[in-house]
Amino acid sequence: MISLSKRASFSIKLLFVVIAAIYIAISIDWIAVWRSVSLNLIEAILISQVLFLSATCVIAFRHSILVRVPPAPFGNCLAAVLLSAGVNLVTPGRIAEVIKATYLRKVLKVPLANGTSAIAVERLFDVAAVSAIALAGFGGAVLENSQIFAAFLLLAFVGLLSIHKVAGLILRVTGKYEGRWVQFLRENCTHVITMLTKRRLGSVAGLTVTSWSLHFLAIWLFFALQSEVQLSLSQVALVFGAVLFAGAVPALPGGIGLIQVAVSMTLVAMDFPFSVALAQSIGLHIAEVLISAVSAPFLILLRPTGIRDLIGSISASRKEREAG
Fold first, then answer.
1. Which of 101, 104, 105, 106 is nearest to 121 (CA)?
2. Which region holds residue 306: left if phi is over 0, alpha if psi is between -120 and 50, else beta?
3. Domain span including residue 189
4. Is residue 263 part of a domain?
């Protein structure tokens, strides 16, 4: 049962969001924003889907390598990625990432620990690659210094190389402990050590760079196709960084609102009118989520997410312990 204090806290936050949304909606000149929507903007949304889809396919292939040896079938992993991305649009904090693990557990019998450890490794690679691209643009356009980019890459490289040692240390430390969660943690670490060989580490790194490079190029293409908004590569990197920062903050589902604010402020800082900046931020957000938003509802209807099976397994295990 949810406590009174938690319900009060949630109500206050919800009230704050509603008031802020009403204030923003009243303050914005929506007629000027609508006038900034052009055929070029719609074409940019549609044409950029080629690169966004390519990036998604690379992510699915990377996931197939990380969850098991030999790699899981590409089609199943693509469905898992699209399911997760689609559900993330209606849930806060990217908690739907776990659906990739539960879905593959259901359809391929992939152990849950394999899926969760693969997701953790993916996030490490993604943070390194994404931050590198964003810092490269920030360093070039704002700091006029690329040394921070090289320093961050070095730190990320060292961190990724220590995955095996950290996993091994956890296995040694938890060796004398028992319990369901300890065992699950040990299974995650064991899978990381077994799966992430030096050769596979290189493959996953290459696929990570490829996927986010395609994502970056998709955003560049989105702006390049429009005559009203022309950005340099450094400016595109700044917008890319704004999108990623806003999407990473565990706020509203799918980053709705926060992404518009971040991208609009970035474009306004580049001397674009606010109405144009807001129209572009809305269009870019649509381009970012269009594939998952269209595909996820069909996948949810046609494919099992595996969440119910996981909950059932946990409940059965709890009843067995209570009976024993």
1. 101
2. left
3. 38-315
4. yes
Query: Which residue type does 74 have?
Result: F
CA dihedral over 37, 40, 43, 48, signed as positive or negative: negative
What's the mean pLDDT in 195-209? 87
Please, are residues 195 and 115 in contact by the beta-carbon 8 Å criterion?
Answer: no
Q: What is the distance between the alpha carbons of residues 153 and 272, in angstroms, rounded to a whole number?
A: 32
- What is the CA 116 to chain-centroid distance, rounded? 15
Residue 12 lies in a domain: no
φ/ψ of residue 227, rounded to 5: -80, -25
Nearest to 283 by CA among 61, 32, 43, 52: 43
Residue 58 is predicted with a pLDDT of 96
pTM (2 decimals)? 0.78
Percent of the chain with pLDDT over 70: 69
Q: Is 25 part of a structural domain of the chain?
A: no
Structural domains of the chain, count: 1
Top pLDDT among 23 and 36 is at 36
> Could you tell me the two tokens for 122?
């993916």
Structure confidence by residue, pLDDT tens digits, 218-256: 999 999 888 778 888 878 888 887 787 776 655 555 556
